[in-house]
Design brief:
GO biological process, one term: transmembrane transport
Radius of gyration: 22 Å
Family: Belongs to the binding-protein-dependent transport system permease family.
Subcellular location: Cell inner membrane; Cell membrane
Structural class: mainly alpha
CATH topology: MetI-like fold
Distance between the termini: 45 Å
Main location: membrane
Helix content: over 70%
Shape: globular
Keywords: Cell inner membrane, Cell membrane, Membrane, Transmembrane, Transmembrane helix, Transport
CATH superfamily: MetI-like
Number of helices: 12
Strand content: under 5%
Largest sheet: none
CATH architecture: Orthogonal Bundle
Number of domains: 1
Length: about 260
């Protein structure tokens, strides 16, 4: 037993070294922009760049829109499948898993062929419609994580009893959805939202091919020309991801302690 525990700790240490040492090296390199001294010059250069602020703000806006639209799409779907159409559950789960199998570049090339400027729906011909298409792309990418987070949270409540109780009091469908279902699955919604934020902030393929000024293409552009600033951007992107994962852990912990609303 002690030998197994020893080897388990060895595996943990090796894994930690494999992940942590490159991060430490990247952080150390990002602090060496000034000759023979550590400094935050690379980070100051990044934060003072108007293109960084615009790209970061743009990706944050796309992330918020993706989370809102994805939430409004996934929660009613998961609720309806669980309550009325349980026979469609395998089909819905298969559809939500497809973005994990189909590469993002295949999806975006399909969008470009279907919605180019010469098609019936020329979404790529205008800036706002291209932004809409990018949000739809991000929803597809985040669908496996958002749906599973919401579906897992919905398993912890008695959807049928809540619906029957609300209907007996004269509640309409919108009231049931936004005052009974949403508050009880908010932990799952927030979990999916934080994962979606991390996905959108680091996504490159779709934003680049749709020619959108997102954070991922900006990181690639800086990485091709400025070594220290690209390392600083990598640390900033990792910090955003870590914060998302930290909030996810907090939400999961508080959801276990919070009582289920009746």
């Amino acid at each position: 037993m002690k030998l197994q525990k020893f080897f388990a700790w060895i595996a943990v240490v090796i894994g930690a070294i494999y992940f942590i040492v490159p991060l430490i090296g990247t952080l150390e390199f990002s602090l060496r922009m000034r000759r023979d001294a550590y400094s935050f010059d690379a980070y100051a250069s990044v934060f003072s760049d108007a293109h960084f602020l615009y790209a970061f703000g743009y990706s944050m806006l796309m992330a918020v829109l993706t989370i809102i639209v994805g939430m409004l799409l996934v929660v009613p779907t998961a609720y309806w499948v669980r309550l009325r159409l349980p026979q469609l559950r395998p089909i819905v789960e298969f559809i939500t898993l497809m973005p994990l199998v189909i590469p993002a570049i295949v999806i975006v090339f399909g969008y470009l062929r279907l919605y180019n400027s010469s098609s019936i729906l020329p979404l790529t011909g205008f800036e706002q419609t291209t932004n809409f298409l990018l949000v739809c792309s991000y929803i597809v990418l985040s669908l496996p994580y958002m749906y599973r987070s919401v579906d897992t949270a919905m398993r912890t409540i008695d959807v049928g009893t809540l619906t029957e109780a609300a209907e007996s009091l004269g509640a309409k469908w919108t009231t049931i959805m936004f005052r009974c279902i949403f508050p009880n699955v908010m932990s799952g919604v927030l979990s999916g939202a934080f994962i979606t934020l991390a996905i959108v902030m680091g996504e490159f393929t779709m934003a680049s091919l749709l020619n959108r000024p997102a954070f991922g293409p900006y990181m690639q552009l800086v990485g091709a020309n400025q070594a220290y600033q690209s390392s600083a951007l990598a640390i900033i992107a990792l910090a955003v991801t870590w914060l998302s994962m930290g909030f996810l852990q907090l939400v999961s912990r508080f959801s276990k302690l919070a009582p289920v609303k009746a």
